[in-house]
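Quick start: what a row looks like.
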Amino acid sequence: MKQYIVDAFTRTPFRGNPAAVCVMDSWPSEQFMKELAGENNLSETAFIVKEEQGYHLRWFTPETEVELCGHATLASSFVILNEYEKGSDTVQFHTMSGILTITRKDDLYEMDFPTYELQEIPVTDDMEKAFGVQPLKAVLGLDLVCVFASEDQVRSMEPDQQLLTKLPGRIQNATAKGTETDCVSRSFCPKLGIAEDPVCGSAHCQIADYWSEQLGKEKILAYQASKRGGTLTCELKENGRITISGEAVLTAVTEILVQP
């Protein structure tokens, strides 16, 4: 079984967010997928099986399966369109979050994703203790998004991972208005076995949605300020969905010798 390592949301190797992508003829056991994802120890490992119409895609962190992952979807579309469907610029994935359509436009891979209803919730002492800085505002969708006063606060914070697990949401995001982009953010995922996700596409279904409303802009240029860093172009659509676009680069192809 081939496994591809793709750095997503970047054009530079060893930047952005690395994902493992496994393209298979049939599904192995769920235990095998969990153990391989744990062996890879990346934010996500994507598993793909071709079906009559499109492909079936599942995502696993080192500890659990997740319902949506942006960077591993970008990596998966990069692999399919460059290695398996070279004559096509569009691929559809059947996922836990419905049908996701990805379109290649020059060097960008544009992903059509859902958005989530965002509800403002009270800023708590636990949030300040967990992030080390008091948020100005907090909103909750699939993930928690805490808004801070400055980009410097987001870039320099060193959250308490244990305290983050006590906050609501699947992922805990810190964001602020950016100086060179519309917004800057970081994503922390201790509940999923990930201390910090280098560039989190699914989180921007909410982060970009929030800043789109705040800034009165349909198109948001976002930067994830992790050590690796990555850029996302996000656009809110009239149908209530969002497109998230980014570049990707292949860094490795390996052969998995263990039989599923």
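That is the whole record. The mean pLDDT is 96. The longest helix spans residues 70-84.
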